[in-house]
Amino acid sequence: MPPISRHRALITGGSAGLGSALAAGLADDGWDVVITGRDRARLDATAAELGTRVTAVAGDVTDPGHRDHLAEVVAGGLDLLVNNASTLGWSDGRTSPLLPVQELTSAGLRHVWETNVVAPVALIRALRPCLREDAAVIDITSDAAAEHYETWGAYAASKAALEHLTLTLATEDPAVRWYAVDPGDLRTQMHQDAFPGEDISDRPLPETVVPAFLALIDRRPPSGRYRAADLAAVVAA
Q1: What is the CATH class of 8-236?
Q2: Which of 149, 155, 179, 226 is catalytic?
Q3: Which residues contact 20 (CB under 8 A, 6 or more apart)?
Q4: pLDDT more than 90, % of the chain
């Protein structure tokens, strides 16, 4: 029998990578978790693998109708929202979706910003009435939001914007804890997409940073920007 539920979380981009790793960690810790993603088959398989505490709700977070549906699913109350769904850009699977700024098309740039900035903020707006007292929102960011890497301009700028909006929300709505968290380079499909054909096995698996996220959720420090590596050091200490 699973442990008695304490809380409920919603994780976007929950079918693989960091999203599924966080869902597994939270479920093991007694949370009920709703995961969402575009690939229904993969999402359902992930939920089945993670057990009865995890519910799959397939859909695209850039779709207003799907966001409204998610609000209906968690209408009973939500303690944690993790905006993890993200995109680097369009890719054919053989070439990196990352392009120099001057080679970006307007459509490609809009696609990245719709997924990485507009959708998370719209989902926050849709779910805000569902957030319980002392709820937390975690927006997944990147070191690229603060550094400047060739060809990462669209993705990096979107993460910088998401960070800024997250910390502005912390000022505007202090009843919720607002976190922008940089998980570091991880061995995920999105990271592989950035380096097609290259070996990224030296990157740590997403599961390695889950304890850092659980510590953040449990301890509820002040709203702000955090690095998983720093949180992991606190956990180790």
Answers
A1: alpha beta
A2: 155
A3: 14, 35, 46, 50, 206
A4: 81
